[in-house]
Amino acid sequence: MPIYLWKARTRQGTIKKGELEAANDEAVLSQLRAQMLMPVTVKKKPKDISEYLPFLRPGITTKDLVIFTRQFATMIDAGLPLVQCLQILGDQQENPTFKLVIQEVRADVEQGSTFAEALAKHEKPFDSLYTNLVHAGEVGGILDTILNRLAVYLEKADALARKVKGAMVYPGTVLVVAVGVVVLMLVKIIPTFEKMFADFGGELPGPTKMVVAMSHWMQDWLVVSMVGIAITVFSYLRARKVSLRFRRATDALYLKVPVFGSLLRKVAVARFSRTLGTMIASGVPILDGLDIVAKTAGNVVVEEALNDVKAAISEGKTIAEPLAETDVFPGMVVQMIAVGEETGAMESMLSKIADFYDDEVDAAVDALTAMLEPAMMVVLGGTVGGLLIAMYLPIFKIAETIG
Q1: CA-to-CA distance for 203 and 209, rounded, in angstroms?
Q2: CB-side exposure of 307: number of CA atoms within 13 Å?
Q3: Per-domain boundaries in the chain
Q4: What is the pLDDT of residues 218-271, one digit of tens each?
Q5: What is the pLDDT averaged over residues 319-323?
Q6: Do the beta carbons of residue 392 and residue 197 sit within 8 Å?
Q7: Cross-strand bridge partners of residue 42
Q8: CB 94: neighbour CB atoms within 10 A?
Q9: Other CB atoms within 10 A of residue 98 CB
Q10: CATH class of the domain defined by 167-403
């Protein structure tokens, strides 16, 4: 339904403004009069340019989803009807993309869909984990509890993702700066030195000849190199998207890379433990939980290992036995899960594992950053310093000749 902007006068003579979603302007006038307001102007709200150009719409962040989930839980706990909760949250939502999603969810609920079914139509903000937990909450009559649990899970999962991204930002930034500085020197600065040396004449030192040759190559092939890098990156991303075999090979390689591989494995264990623990605590069956955890693993090797675990459990095995055979999860994790199965405290044990590996990720990120800082500075300083020394060698030679 369209949204109308209205302006009305109260009994006291003050002017109020607002928005209303209604079938037509007559419906808006009726609602205003029912609120004892005297309509002054009513007009349809103009469409935002982002409605015509979807790529301009802002994305839905984890923060948006967490705030929505927490507010929803509070309203449900206070006894407000589901549709009214969605109406209030939709009206006050500042993100236009998320606002539209909430309005569509509310419309589906009004037409008879369950809350989980309405959410499942919007996979971008509400993934299978979210919708399955909401379904469990609706069936069990504990939707507010489930939503609070979901909010905690989302916050911790987002914190874990930000830790990993933070570990990659520094070396990536330094690498980009180093490449940019080297390219700028080879394309702009070295030719100036070369012209100056040519005016003086004489034989150039070996390192200087090598740098000048690199400068010539870079000037001739810079555009081709940039196009080649772009094609390589695009081909890599495309291959990861369309080829399961390529994704499996690269994901397996990532887990074996020194330092980074260990970090990615710890992240995978933390995510697995946190997600599965949250689902079990919410009443989701173990097989359904493993299926969702596998889909959200983010690594094909881990996903296939969890699918093997799920198949083994469906044949009557415990979860610890097939986990031990995957070679993905550390022995300590397998042992703690086995203890959790024997004592009936699986969710508690998984939560402890997740907390432990969150701390491990913190420590690994700190160690990685501490190790990379001096290494990257040495590489950057050595590269730029080497170029400068190569350029100054002829100057020293000229000064010696003059002397």
Answers
A1: 9
A2: 9
A3: 3-46, 55-155, 167-403
A4: 888 888 988 999 999 999 999 988 888 999 899 889 888 887 888 888 888 888
A5: 85
A6: no
A7: 6
A8: 8
A9: 24
A10: mainly alpha
Q: Which two tokens mark 353?
A: 């594992």
- Contacts of residue 55, defined as CB under 8 A and 6 or more positions apart, other chains included, come to none
Q: Is the fold of 55-155 the same as that of 167-403?
A: yes
What is the length of the chain? 403
The DSSP H or E segment spanning 107 is helix 96-110
Counting other chains too, the contacts that 130-134 makes at CB distance below 8 Å and 24 or more residues apart are 132/279, 132/284, 132/288, 132/292, 133/278, 133/279, 133/282, 133/284
Least confident among 45-59, 98-112, 231-245, 385-399: 45-59
Residue matched to tokens 């000037």 = 219
pTM of the full structure? 0.69
Query: Which residues, in sequence order, are CB contacts of 4 under 8 Å at separation 6+?
Result: 19, 20, 21, 22, 25, 28, 42, 43, 44, 45
Distance CA 94, CA 245 (A): 42
Give the closest residue to 98 by CA, choosing from 64, 131, 70, 73.
Answer: 64
State yes or no: pLDDT of 151 exceeds 60: yes
pLDDT tens per residue across span 32-65: 888 888 888 888 777 655 554 554 566 788 888 8
Contact 40, 51 (CB under 8 A): no
Tokens of 368: 């990685």
CB atoms within 10 A of CB 318: 13
The reply to whether CATH 3.40.50.150 applies to domain 55-155 is no
Residue whose entry in the numeric block shows the structure tokens 């590489």: 379
